Amino acid sequence: GDSVTQMEGPVTLSEEAFLTINCTYTATGYPSLFWYVQYPGEGLQLLLKATKADDKGSNKGFEATYRKETTSFHLEKGSVQVSDSAVYFCALDSNYQLIWGAGTKLIIKP
Amino acid sequence: DTAVSQTPKYLVTQMGNDKSIKCEQNLGHDTMYWYKQDSKKFLKIMFSYNNKELIINETVPNRFSPKSPDKAHLNLHINSLELGDSAVYFCASSRADTDTQYFGPGTRLTVL
Fold first, then answer.
1. C-alpha–C-alpha distance, residues A88 and A102, integer Å
2. Which residues of chain B fall short of a pLDDT of 70?
3. Which of B90, B94, B100 shows the shortest C-beta gap to A49?
C-alpha cells in the first residue's frame, strides 16, 4: 500500500541555519503531497502542498518540490527561526485519505 | 470564527468509564475525520465519515464509535476506557472534492 517515510527527529539547528527535512513516498499513480506543521500544544495546520510532478509548494519561507523521479517531497527553508520549532508531517493523498509520515520534530536554538 | 472546534480540550477519567469528545466544523465540509496521536506524535486515522459512508480503520477497537447528528458534527464516543487510550485525539474535516484537511486543536485524553 501507499506509504510515507520521513527523516527521524529531532532535528536541532541554530537560528538562521538552512533546513532540509527529507520525505519519500511510495504510491500508485500520482498523489497530491503535503506538509503539515504542528506547533506545541496545537492541532496540525497545512503548510504547503503540491498536486503534480515538478510542482513547488511554498509558504512562510518553506518550499518543497514534487519529484516524481525520486518519489520525494523534501521540505526546505533557507533561514530558520526559533518560531519554526514544531513537528512537521509529510503526507500523501490516497483516495482522499491522508497517509502520514511519522513526523519530524524540529528544534531551533537561538 | 473557529473553523474546526473540539470539546473538551482536556479530559481526565478513570479506566472503565465511557466518555465522548465533540467536534464541530463551520466550513461547510462534507467529510470529517478522527485521528489518534500517541506520545511519539505518530498520527493514526481512526474514522472518516461523510453523509454517505463511514470508513473505519480496522485496527480501531469497537469500543470507539463515531456519531454524527448532522453534517457539521462528528462526535467520538469511547466505551470502557483503557490506559492505552490515553492520547491526543484530533478531529479534521475536508470538502468531499478536495484533499486538504483542516484540523481541530485536539483533545488530550488521560485515562488513570
1. 9
2. 1, 97-98
3. B100
